[in-house]
Specification:
heterodimer; A: mainly alpha; 8 helices; B: mainly alpha; about 0% strand; elongated
């Protein structure tokens, strides 16, 4: 059995700045058919699902992690998670929102692990003189324009210090180009809460960036 | 333009840079990588079950061995106690017999 083409990617031009990445929302019937096929592990259904969602998952991961290699790793982990958990998907949200949530969770887990590694590296460097501190990898985001590379790298360093909720809201809004409504569905918050989070994220970022530029 | 205004401009540019990040094509190897991970996790899962089974068997053997040893020890202790009691009775009896003999003699 093969998966019927129930999902269509919008034809966004890859060279356009964000917002430019959308997976067309499926109507309820098509989504149920797709989920059913995934649960039954129908031949070709999972491959087709990966092909249609990988762009969204990869770019969101890239925007959170800022490194192509890490984003590829997390994208794979997201689809492995979908493969394992599709049977427990209750349909409380759309499939797209569910995939977004898994992606964000995986990205945050990855970033937390990286922070722990950094702390451990710092402790090692205290313990033994000369041990190299594990620094987060440099910005390796193929979507960043060359002329914006330096300021985007600085921006990422400040984003890394934001609380998780502010970070998610800011990244989804300013980098992924999602609407407040889409973010509210993904984060399971009200639209006004999302507005407030983005406002606070920008305020904090401005403060941190100001202090950063003041020092140099 | 004073220094603070200059910094404010830089801050604005940095925040605007986020909106200029472009969408990129994902690597072609994503699906292959996903399937590799799924297969390797399945394999690791099977090994994990075997490992757990061995651990459970080991634990079972250990528990049985401990209970057997403690059972043997308690048997020994019981035997020792009963032997001691027997000896005490014999001693008392012989003492009584000696006394009785002595009494009769007297």
């Amino acid at each position: 059995m093969t998966l019927q083409p129930v999902m269509i990617l919008t034809s966004n031009h890859p060279g356009l700045p964000t917002p430019n990445r959308k997976v067309a929302s499926l109507d309820e019937v098509s989504e149920k058919v797709l989920i059913n096929q995934l649960v039954k592990n129908a031949e070709g259904s999972f491959e087709s699902f990966v092909q249609q969602y990988q762009r969204m998952v990869f770019n969101t991961s890239l925007n959170f992690l800022a490194t192509k290699e890490d984003a590829e790793e997390i994208t794979q982990d997201v689809f492995v998670e979908v493969y394992k958990s599709i049977g427990s998907f209750k349909g409380g949200s759309t499939l797209k929102t569910w995939v977004y949530r898994i992606t964000i969770t995986k990205c945050l887990e990855f970033l937390r692990k990286a922070k722990r590694k950094k702390r451990f590296g710092f402790m090692l460097s205290i313990g033994s003189i000369g041990a190299a501190e594990i620094e987060p990898p440099d910005l390796d985001h193929p979507g960043v324009l060359a002329e914006n590379h330096e300021r985007t790298e600085i921006l990422y360093k400040q984003i890394n210090q934001l609380p998780d909720n502010q970070r998610i809201a800011f990244t989804l809004c300013n980098m992924d180009g999602m609407s407040y409504k889409e973010i509210s569905e993904t984060m399971d918050l009200s639209v006004s809460s999302v507005e407030s989070l983005i406002f606070r994220a920008k305020k904090n970022l401005r403060k941190k960036l100001f202090n950063y530029y003041k020092k140099i | 333009m004073n220094k603070n205004e200059h910094i404010e401009n830089k801050v604005d540019e940095a925040i605007k840079a986020a909106a200029h990040i472009r969408n990129v094509e994902p690597p072609e190897s994503i699906y292959a990588g996903v399937m590799d991970k799924i297969h390797s996790q399945d394999h690791a899962g099977t090994e994990g079950i075997n490992y757990m089974q061995w651990a459970a068997i080991g634990l079972l053997v250990l528990v049985n061995a401990i209970s057997y040893i403690s059972f043997i020890n308690s048997e020994d202790a019981d035997l020792q106690t009963s032997q001691n009691t027997e000896m005490e009775i014999e001693n008392l009896l012989s003492e009584y017999q000696i006394n009785e003999f002595a009494y009769n003699e007297y």
